[in-house]
UniProtKB/TrEMBL annotation:
Family the entry assigns: Belongs to the 5-formyltetrahydrofolate cyclo-ligase family.
Top-level taxon: Bacteria
Catalyzed reactions: (6S)-5-formyl-5,6,7,8-tetrahydrofolate + ATP = (6R)-5,10-methenyltetrahydrofolate + ADP + phosphate
Pfam families hit by this protein: 5-FTHF_cyc-lig
Coiled coil (UniProt feature): 5-33
Alphabetized NCBIfam families for the sequence: MTHFS_bact (TIGR02727)
GO terms, molecular function: 5-formyltetrahydrofolate cyclo-ligase activity
Species of the source: Microbacterium pullorum
Keywords annotated in UniProt: ATP-binding, Coiled coil, Ligase, Magnesium, Metal-binding, Nucleotide-binding
EC id: 6.3.3.2
Protein name, as recorded: 5-formyltetrahydrofolate cyclo-ligase
Length: 198
């Protein structure tokens, strides 16, 4: 990664992290309700049987109520678990399942680990992001877990990043290993993008 791209990513992440930390509890609650509605509608349009999602941190647009509702609807939901080798492992979500702190102190599910390739069987991936641009390029939080996962999938299904409305921006700094997404889900809208695979 070139120093210029690395610096630009670091600066943008810091700005976005600060913006998220300034949100009120009410704004977070409203965002989670909106994301839940948008993701429910996406599932209804795409008729999926199995998805991957993530357990949101307190500053991310909330996904937990959606995960529980998807399980209740009979959808198989895989949740990521970070590994020391830089790959994501996966476990099946259970209603109000146990959560622990993962490698980086972020919330992760407790459950039987299925291995990194388990995600190859899902119909839709719902992933976190710091920002996404109009070309579908995603800025993650810098550890590369989701870029590695997406880059290694044989048949990658649609990938939607969950962000706040203000985090759909004109351009995300891009490096060669960065993977695009198919669309974004925000508290107010779901947008299909036309990512350029490289």
């Amino acid at each position: 990664m070139s120093d210029g791209i690395d610096d630009a990513k670091r600066a943008l992440r810091a700005e976005l992290r600060e913006r998220r930390q300034l949100l009120s509890d009410q704004a977070r609650t409203t965002a989670e309700e909106g994301v839940h509605r948008q993701l429910d509608a996406l599932l209804a349009r795409t008729d999926v049987r199995s998805i991957s999602c993530f357990l949101s941190t307190p500053t991310e647009p909330g996904t937990r109520s959606f995960v529980n509702a998807a399980i209740e609807r009979g959808i198989r939901v895989l949740l990521p678990v970070t590994r020391i080798d830089g790959l994501l492992d996966w476990t099946v979500a259970t209603p109000d399942g146990d959560v622990t702190d993962g490698l980086f102190g972020l919330p992760e599910p407790v459950g039987e680990l299925l291995g990194p390739i388990a995600v190859n069987d899902v119909d839709l991936l719902v992933i976190p992001a710091a920002a996404v641009d109009h070309r579908g390029m995603r800025l993650g939080w810098g550890r590369g877990y989701f870029d590695k996962t997406l880059g290694s999938m044989e048949r990658c299904p649609p990938v939607y990043a969950v962000i706040y409305d203000s985090e759909l921006i004109d351009e995300v700094p891009r490096d060669v290993h960065d993977q695009p997404v198919s669309g974004v889900v925000t508290p107010t809208q779901t947008i299909v993008l036309s990512p350029q695979r490289h």
